[in-house]
Structure formats: C-alpha cells, structure tokens
Amino acid sequence: MRAAVLHEIGQDKLEVLDDVEAVGFGPGKVKLRVRATGLCHSDVSAMSGVLPQPAPFIPGHEGAGEVIDIGDGVTGLSAGDRVLVCWLPACGTCPACRRGQTQLCLAGFMNAGTPNFKRPGGDVFGFAGTGTFTEEVVVDAGCAVPIPDDVPFEIAALIGCGVTTGLGAAINTAQVEAGSSVAVIGCGGVGISTIQGARVQGAAQIVAVDPVASRREAALRFGAAEAVAPGGLAVAHARITAGEGFDYVFEVVGKSVTARTAYENTRRGGTLCIVGAGAMDDKFQVNMFELFFDEKRILPSMYGGGDVLRSYERAIALWRAGRIDLESMITHRVQLAEINDALDQMRTGEALRTCIEL
Fold this sequence. Notes:
By secondary structure, the protein is of the alpha/beta class. The chain has twelve helices and 19 strands. Strands 4, 6, 7, 10, 11, 18 and 19 form a seven-stranded mixed beta sheet that branches. The chain has a six-stranded parallel beta sheet with strand order 14-13-12-15-16-17, sandwiched between helices. Helix 5 packs across helix 11.
C-alpha cells in the first residue's frame, strides 16, 4: 500500500512509497482504511525532531476512515464502521484515568515505541502510535472512535486533533468567562479553533496575533474582533485593556519567546494557557517575584484538557448547530502524492488546514 515515509529525523521531505504494509493486527486491534487526514503542525515538529519520535516513521495523527477488520476481544466496532482516529486513547485503568484526567493517560504514548508498519528494509513507526499518511493503519481499538453518518471524513479528521485541542483549551482548560478579553498568539488550525472556543464561551474581545497576513484575515472570519501582527500586540494591549492586560492569553506556537510574550500580555490574576507543543530544551522562565506578585495562572492544555470522547461529541454538536465553522478551516485539499507541497504550504503559513484525501 502507499504511505508517506520520513526516513531520518531532520529531513524536510517525505517519500511516498508503495511497498509499506500495516502490521500488528491481532487481539484488541483494529485495521482502518484511512479516507482523510489533516496535516497538523505536530507532524512537522516530529519530522524536525522538536517532538520525540523514532524513525523511520509515517507522520499523521489527525485522521478518519472506515474499519476494515477487528481483532479478537474488540467490542463496539464492526467492519464498515466510520471512525475518527484518537491518537491519545484512554486506558481507563491508570491513575490519571481514575482521576478523570484521561487526557494525561500514557497508554497511547507507549504505542509510539512499537512499529505498526514494515517495508522490505525493516520496521516503520507510526507517529504517536498511529501514522495516518497512509492508506491503511492498525491501531488499538481505543484509537478508533465511531462517528455519526452525517459527519464527513475530513471534518472528523480535524476533530481528531486540532479542533479538539483548540476548543478544549478555551472551554475545558481556561474556562473562558463570558464578557472577557482574550488574545490568541498563533492562528493556524489550532489557534483558529481556540478563537472559536473563546467565541462559543462568550468572550467580548478576541485579538488574534500572527505574522502571516492570510491567517490574520482568517482569524477575523472565525470570530476575532481584530487581528494584528506580533508587532501590533502592544498597541492592542494598551487600547483594549487600558494597559492592564488580557483576561486570557493563549500561546499556540510552542516556543518560549511567544510564551513569554503571552505572559507579559496577561493581566495580573489572569490566565495564560499554553497550547503549543514545544521542544524539551526550550525553557520558559519567570522570576520568583513576578510569579508570586502577579498571581497569573499558567495552565498547560494537553489535547484540549479534558475527556476527549466528550470533547469530540461537543465539537460535533457545536458544528451541527452552526456554532463553529469547520468546513472553512480546510483551505487546501491534496492527494497523498502532493504531501510535500502541503508541507511547504504549512511552513509558509499559506495553508490554515490541509486535508489529504486518500
């Protein structure tokens, strides 16, 4: 079957091959036919080594498709079922799951160290234990979440990561209050979803911050009251908040420099929410006096900061009700053979979200 493979960490191009086989099918597993997958910035971060991932590997974790087969012991799924791919399934039994913090379950991360593909030359890993830049993939049954018939595959794929992450940051983690002021730094697919989440929560003022003009324009369409380049944030801060700072600031880039900017633009007693996934050697610093004196809440948000199955259901309900716009987030559609063009469009900021159709 065809798949897009990264041979070594640090390479910026994928090779589309037709000699890849999905392996590992057995008890507790399902085999999926991938129909659509989104290109998420985390895929690029794994390719560059910012996020740890063994190589060679197949990127992609934001996917949807159909069940081909189910292994022994799998219940609630049948061949032909339409599903989205959950890259962080909850085991239900670990301490985090028992506390109700299923987004912190490590079971899914353990899968990342087990190859689920092979080629004539050897084993191939799937990013985050999945790997959806391929026609077929074998995953744990918990990774295959049934979706209603009225949800298109491309919409389900977005809900599988970017939409859930962004909406959840605003709704679950920060719990944005109605009438509040919000700034969102970084307006790719996750940032746009964060803006939509803040709008759903009733934020009165949403300022989008991004260096790419097309993304700033998109942010206005999705609910931001205004959008500025990074150099314009200080002016917006002074004008909108009278210099006090925003009630909520979301960092959706994953870099310490933007996290520091976010901290400085959060009011005393306000909330800084870290949504972007960054590198292990990139240190975010605050001094002990400001940490104490400013009493700003610093809240990391992992995969939307809540139960992902409930978050999927909420995203679908909001989409059906017209409260969030998911179709317009897909600005580019490509075939698997064009994956490197899609990567370039993401790196330049030209694409908001690209759907790879298989």
